[in-house]
Write a structure and sequence with these properties.
The chain is an alpha+beta fold. It is built from eleven helices and twelve strands. The longest helix is centred in the last third of the chain and has 25 residues, at 262-286. The termini are close together. The model has no long low-confidence stretch (mean pLDDT 96). Bound molecules: alpha-D-galactopyranose. Alpha-D-galactopyranose binds at residues 28, 32-33, 35-36, 167-168, 170-171, 335-336.
Length: 386
């Protein structure tokens, strides 16, 4: 694939050697919708993601193509990049270049040939994966010695300021801090991080696609963010010390919940419970207790369905099918919800059974075929030999 991408680079215009880069996708195992509420998240980076062959150009242009979107070639002067200029796949790439130029100054021109082996718009962060591979590529092509936290900030700003999704820091952090055989435990307020072991001999990450589009994902996602912002503002009137929903103590909330509309009560309840689940999940992984960790994942799904209301009947059906397989520790929807995939943690000995039973149950449920994708937690963005 890299040879194919690199053959497309217009060498007559390139102002330097073409180089190849990769950034993974991610699946979040615990801490759903906690990042923008200041809580803890527990994602893994996946072994599939986005590949980019990149070369600087001397003519001030951005030239970009994606194998996933044939015929949608981008050719635009870099100085014309501006939020709202475009939508779709290239907005993520442009956003990353736009923030990179803010940080490192105007680029002389750049060509990017992109391909992905990650299913798109399925809750596996294919969009953040593009942002991260571009930021990594530009930093390396310029020889910028920029630390990971700043690269995360740039990739995240691409999404919030250029694309216009009010997402938290989960996706870009999960991607940049991904490590083999580890689950990241990241505190979105303190910015502390811990890599907790996930032994591949005891657990594999399974991802199963509902095959349904994530209906209204961006607008419904922004609506959840707005609901949390509103709930926080109302609670701050009675709890002045609270800076984010994660700070709300269960006992205080129980006393004052009724002052909130019921929908907002449910959103806050999810945040409080989910934060507790990540605390318990992290403690469980530290002592190697995968059964407890998996139970937290499945409980998280119930809460996403009932309190946060971001699940769908198809996601619920896949989670039920997954957890009915002996050897599956737990399962939940991954990403923001509203469609896309579920993720499950499964003992390797149960893999064949899982492969057979989950797609069969899903076909019985809705007549649609699906298949299981298997992953081990993988490392973050990196240059690949070309
Ligand atoms: C999307 C957002 C993330 C996070 C998750 C839900 O993936 O991009 O920032 O909020 O949803 O956990």
């Amino acid at each position: 694939m890299l040879a194919r991408l690199s053959a497309r680079i217009d060498s007559s215009m390139s102002a330097g050697k073409a180089r190849a880069f990769f950034a993974p996708g991610r699946a979040n195992l615990l801490g759903a919708h906690l990042d923008y509420n200041g809580g803890c998240v527990m994602p893994v980076a996946l072994s599939k993601g986005t590949y980019a062959v990149a070369a600087l150009r001397a003519d001030g242009l951005l030239v970009a193509e994606s194998e996933q979107f044939p015929g949608e070639r981008v050719e635009v002067p870099l100085r014309e990049l501006a939020p709202g200029r475009t939508q779709g796949w290239s907005a993520y790439l442009e956003g990353a270049l736009w923030t990179a130029q803010e940080a490192w100054g105007r680029l002389p021109g750049i060509e990017l040939q992109v391909a992905a082996d990650l299913p798109m718009a399925k809750g596996l962060s294919s969009s953040a994966s593009i942002e991260c591979v571009v930021v990594r590529a530009v930093a390396d092509l310029l020889g910028a010695r920029t630390g990971e936290d700043e690269l995360i900030r740039l990739a995240h700003a691409a999404e919030t300021r250029y694309v216009g999704v009010r997402c938290g820091i989960l996706d870009q952090t999960a991607i940049f801090l991904g490590r083999e055989d580890s689950v990241l435990h990241f505190d979105c307020t303190e910015l502390t991080r811990e890599h907790l072991p996930l032994d591949g001999r005891k657990a594999l990450v399974a991802v199963v696609d509902t095959g349904t589009a994530r209906g209204l994902a961006a607008s419904a996602f922004n609506q959840r963010v707005a609901e949390c912002t509103r709930a926080l503002a109302m609670l701050q009137e009675i709890m002045p010390g609270v800076a984010c929903l994660r700070d709300v103590r269960r006992a205080d909330f129980e006393r004052s919940a009724s002052s909130l509309p019921v929908v907002l009560q449910h959103r806050v309840q999810h945040v409080i419970d989910e934060q507790e689940r990540t605390d318990r999940g992290a403690a469980a992984l530290r002592r190697g207790d995968l059964a407890e960790f998996g139970a937290m994942m499945t409980a998280a799904h119930d809460s996403l369905r009932d309190l946060y209301e971001v699940s769908t009947p198809e996601l619920d059906a896949l989670v039920s099918a997954a957890v009915s397989v002996p050897g599956c520790y737990g399962s939940r929807l991954t990403g923001a919800g509203f469609g896309g995939c579920v993720v499950a943690l499964v003992h390797p000995a149960a893999r064949a059974e899982f492969d057979a039973r989950v797609p069969r149950a899903y076909r019985e449920f809705c007549g649609r075929d699906t298949e299981v994708m298997w992953f081990a937690p993988a490392g973050g963005p990196r240059e690949l030999p070309l």
